[in-house]
Amino acid sequence: MIRLADRTARIAGSPTMKVTATVDRLRRDGVEVIDFGAGEPDFGTPEFINTAAKLAIDQHFSKYTPVAGTAELRRAICARYRTDYGVEYQENEVITSAGGKQALFNTALTLFGPGDEVIVHAPYWPTLTEQVKLAEATPVLVQTRAADGFAIGASTILNAITPRTRGIIINSPCNPTGALISESGLTVIAREASKRGIWIVLDLCYEKLIYDPTPHNLPAVLQKECPDLAVICGSASKAYAMTGWRCGWSIGPAPVIAAQSAIQSHATSNVSSITQKAGTAALTGSQEPVTRMLDEYRRRRDHLHGWLTADGRIHCVKPAGAFYLFPDLSELLSPDGFGTTTDFAQALLDESRVAVTPGEAFDAPGFVRMSYATSMDNLREGSRRLLEFVAKHAANAQSVR
Ligand SMILES: Cc1ncc(COP(=O)(O)O)c(C=O)c1O
């Protein structure tokens, strides 16, 4: 019998990646699938970023760099946050990692340990809670609700604090709900955290994907209220269509960054040197491609939302950020039809060749996540198939009754 370390039993594989793997397998078998599962931009990386990477290769920029990343890239991150938020960070307060995922992982390992509780708002991106468990701490979930637009309320988070609370993870814009936390809400949380010595980890990986002008200067709130207890994790993945490059970062107090650098030095060392050149170009170059992609996501969001909610049984909050719709399908579930959204999603994939991620993956049964980071043609055809599927099965369920 193969004996693995105990921690492997506590951790579930990424359910969102599982959907992607299923779609890949079907496509390799020649099956045409409309994929609403993918959590990544369908756009290519902007050309000027590719050019910077090609130049790096041609110039043999191919050696190890400092573990935390080149000074050039770290300065570019500081400059980006200065321009976007008016906040000041120094180079030794920044480390670059293999995506926001590794930045968050380093952060969890650096700040949390056995016996600690870490508050996470649900529905959540599953990696957040699994990383807390990998750090041998305990995730404590607080629910946000569709009826309130999935608002991340300060009072529900504060009510979950116990003497064992060591951290609060805030993800805004949130995957899967697209909700934002308000500056005032974060202020209340950060003040209390500061009084009690609780860490705030802010996952800002979708920070560039906010549709309407909304006050969202969360870094300034943290710098004002709890600079010594805040870590921000960001990423080039979603903003610059760079998911495969693996470029993310943590920003926080210098001792936290030094500890993350020590951990990373024994795990992966630096982010690929070529990626670092690409990331520097992305952060320092024109931000116009980001605006163009955002405009297109907005158009898709509005269309997809309209098409789906044409069926009165599908309820859906219009997301303020990120690129996911998170419709409530609970009216379509029944004991004699689909009992869960996992069943629904499987049958939708088998019969109609449309992939969605079931809400169970985000601790939100009754919902599904649909990424609109795909073409308008796919969105139109995928919605048509989904509505047809719903009409057929709802009619069947009614005739059984
Ligand atoms: C909420 C959230 N945070 C962080 C990430 C990390 O992305 P990456 O590792 O590509 O930067 C993701 C990716 O899907 C995400 O959804």
Distance between the termini: 49 Å
Q: What average pLDDT do the residues reach?
A: 95
Class by helix and strand content? alpha/beta
- Counting H and I runs of at least 4 residues, what is the number of helices? 14
Percent helix among the residues?
40-55%
**Strands, count:** 12
Integer-rounded radius of gyration: 21 Å
Main sheet characteristics: 7 strands, mixed
Shape: globular
Weakly predicted, low-confidence segments: none
Give the distinct bound molecules.
pyridoxal-5'-phosphate
Beta content comes to 5-15%
Lateral strand order in the biggest sheet: 2-8-7-6-5-3-4
Oligomer: single chain
Order of helices and strands: HHEHHEHEHEHEHEHEEHHHEHEEEH
Write up what this structure looks like.
By secondary structure, the chain is an alpha/beta fold. The chain contains 14 helices and 12 strands. The protein has helices spanning 7-10, 15-28, 47-58, 71-85, 99-111, 126-134, 154-159, 183-196, 218-225, 254-267, 273-284, 288-309, 341-352, 376-400; strands at residues 34-35, 94-97, 117-122, 138-143, 165-171, 199-203, 230-235, 248-251, 324-325, 354-355, 357-358, 368-371. The strands form 3 sheets. The protein has a 7-stranded mixed β-sheet, with helices on both faces. Strands 9-12-11 form a 3-stranded antiparallel β-sheet. Helix 8 (183-196) links the parallel strand 5 (165-171) and strand 6. The chain is globular. The relative contact order is 0.16.
Short description:
The protein is α/β, with parallel strands linked by helices.
Features:
45% helix, single chain, three-stranded antiparallel β-sheet, 14 helices, alpha/beta, binds pyridoxal-5'-phosphate, 401 residues, seven-stranded mixed β-sheet
